[in-house]
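Handout, page 2. Input:
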Amino acid sequence: MEGRVLAAVYNLGYLPNDGFDKRVDVDGVKRVQTSTAASLGSISMAVECLKVGGIVVVTSYPGSNEGEHEAVEGVMGCLSKVSSKEGWFDQAFRGRKGVLVEREGWRGRMEVEEEVKERVDEIVGGGGKGYRVTKNEFVGREKSPVLWCVARVK
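Output:
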């Protein structure tokens, strides 16, 4: 399916104003939200299927759920290194000590890195040669949404 998708758009996190947003667990966590594993799987498939010149846009929310933003950040960091001479995984994660997911009740840093590596391996193995990744966020606003754009250039 490589080369068939021109654009894909993702808005991760909980589903606002869907009639379910008032349903919360006892601890105040919203129940209807995206999952990290499903989001990474879908995003990696969309990127793998991009035409040259195609784009995937992802909005993620720091602190929203289960380290999803941190995992997306890991995938995007790796994709930005795919066309470089150095190994993309080592280059993307060099010097990142504890940056990925240090949240109680969720997987540790190494497990998240392995999932990120597996997803990017799938994309690279599918024929992706080069990507341009941009990150747009509000400066000085903690936990504001982050807009990621991935364009396939090769």
